[in-house]
Design goal:
- This protein is an alpha/beta fold.
- The protein has a domain at about 1-180 and about 230-260: Rossmann fold (3-Layer(aba) Sandwich), CATH 3.40.50.720.
- The chain is about 40% helix and about 20% strand.
- The protein contains 11 helices and 14 strands.
- The protein has helices at about 10-20, 40-50, 60-70, 85-90, 95-115, 145-165, 200-205, 235-250, 270-280, 305-310, 315-334, and strands at about 1-5, 25-30, 55, 75-80, 120-125, 170-175, 180, 215, 230, 230-235, 255-260, 265, 285-290, 295-300.
- The strands form 4 sheets. The protein has a 7-stranded parallel beta sheet, sandwiched between helices. A 3-stranded mixed beta sheet has the order 12-9-14.
- The two termini are about 35 Å apart.
- Bound molecules: nicotinamide-adenine-dinucleotide and uridine-diphosphate-N-acetylglucosamine (UD1).
- Uridine-diphosphate-N-acetylglucosamine binds near residues 86, 126, 216 and 228.
């Protein structure tokens, strides 16, 4: 299958490219490099033994995307391109609607013009807001509290509408929980620009001495040790979930949404301890006030993905931590 991967040079997209190509498919990467580097294309090639096609440009540019679809005889699209910082989206909502929503709109117009029927979309568990019950299943009420989350929900809704208008179309929205870890080679991984917002990249930078200590946001949550609990999922498991979604679309049309998580939550302190064991480093931390907008506890009900997609996360917390550390160690020596 020839698959167009938007945001293919990013953290998750690069792992999806590896999984697709290792399974014998062709991945065509489109990325404007706003949050990534072209060197990722070479890293993917090094891992899989052949190079993916790469085009630098904006996913919202209809003519540009149509050309790529035609040239590579694209069969399906995995749409990962987008901005993803919650804090930034609160400061600059229009930038998020422009890039995420208008980007998706242009892509969908290009797909329609070229009669491409299948799309897998990177959605987020953020659309559930503060969980009303646990584990969170796909029927959980949606409650977005920032422009990032709303941009994801808008795109899910656009996909739902076009699936109603064209019954042959198939769309799978994958609601990621907390992706962490890296490919086992340590060649690709999460490498955010500037100060990391997310827990794992911050922990890694503290462990290697780039930052002095970790701020643990809140130790007074109603959780076993008082710190926030999340469903961390290995990025390679997540990437394999995209393959499962593509397979699902080969025999199912219509709009679908699936949680991708492990179904199990770990606290911030549990994450720190697991990382320390795997890296052999200490991670100094300070307990500080809660971060605004954070929820106490969130983990996925993964039954739908298990039974419908025939997919399950298999990698352990140890794998998540050791691969993150390997990636950072290789980065430090580059
Ligand atoms: P990332 O920033 O590493 O990757 C996104 C890629 O998209 C980047 O390479 C960026 O350069 C590119 N991009 C952004 N806007 C573009 C545009 N208009 N045209 C072309 N390329 C564009 O982020 P990621 O962590 O790999 O996330 C991928 C997707 O998954 C995003 O849509 C994100 O919202 C979603 N998601 C991520 C997480 C997470 O924790 N990483 C959780 C839930 C959902
Ligand atoms: C955040 C976003 C979410 C997005 C996800 C993936 C918010 C409110 N939510 O989720 O929308 O989909 O990232 O990009 O921003 N923590 C610390 N210290 C840190 C960083 C994090 O203690 O320096 C804690 C947090 O309080 C939380 C846990 O670690 O309990 C995980 O945080 P993070 O990695 O930022 O993910 P989420 O908050 O779940």
């Amino acid at each position: 299958m020839n698959v167009l991967l938007t945001g293919g040079c990013g953290y998750i997209g690069s792992h999806v490219a590896v999984v697709l190509m290792s399974a014998g498919h062709e991945a065509v990467l489109v990325d404007n490099l706003s949050n990534s580097h072209q060197t990722i294309v070479d890293k993917v090639a090094e891992i899989v033994g052949r190079s993916p096609a790469f085009y630098q440009g904006d996913v919202g540019e209809v003519a540009f995307v149509r050309n790529i679809i035609r040239r590579h005889r694209i069969d399906a699209v995995i749409h990962l391109a987008g901005f993803k910082s919650v804090g930034e989206s609160v400061q600059q909502p229009l930038m998020y609607y422009q890039n995420n929503v208008c980007g998706a709109l242009g892509l969908l117009q290009a797909m329609e013009a070229e009669s491409i029927s299948n799309i897998v979309f990177s959605s987020s568990a953020t659309i559930y807001g503060d969980p009303q019950y646990l584990p969170v299943n796909e029927a959980h009420p949606k409650h977005v509290i920032n422009a990032y989350g709303r941009s994801k929900l808008h795109i899910e809704d656009m996909l739902r509408d076009i699936c109603i208008s064209r019954p042959s179309l198939g769309a799978v929205c994958l609601r990621y929980f907390n992706p962490v870890g890296a490919h086992q080679s340590g060649l690709i991984g999460d490498h955010p620009r500037g100060i990391p917002n997310n827990l794992m990249p911050y922990v890694v930078q503290v462990a290697c001495g780039e930052r002095e200590f970790l701020n643990v946001f809140g130790a007074d949550y109603p959780t076993p040790d008082g710190t926030g609990v999340r469903d961390y999922i290995h990025v390679m498991d997540l990437a394999e979930g995209h393959m499962a979604a593509l397979k699902y679309l080969s025999s199912n049309s219509g709009w679908h949404a699936f949680n991708l998580g492990t179904g199990r939550g770990y606290s911030v302190l549990e994450m720190i301890r697991a990382f320390e064991r795997q890296s052999g480093r200490t991670v100094p931390y300070r307990l500080v006030a809660r971060r605004e907008g954070d929820v106490a506890c969130s983990y996925a009900d993964v039954q739908a993905a298990t039974f419908e997609l025939n997919w399950k996360a298999t990698r352990s917390l140890e794998d998540m931590c050791s691969s993150s550390w390997l990636f950072q160690s290789r980065l430090s020596t580059e």
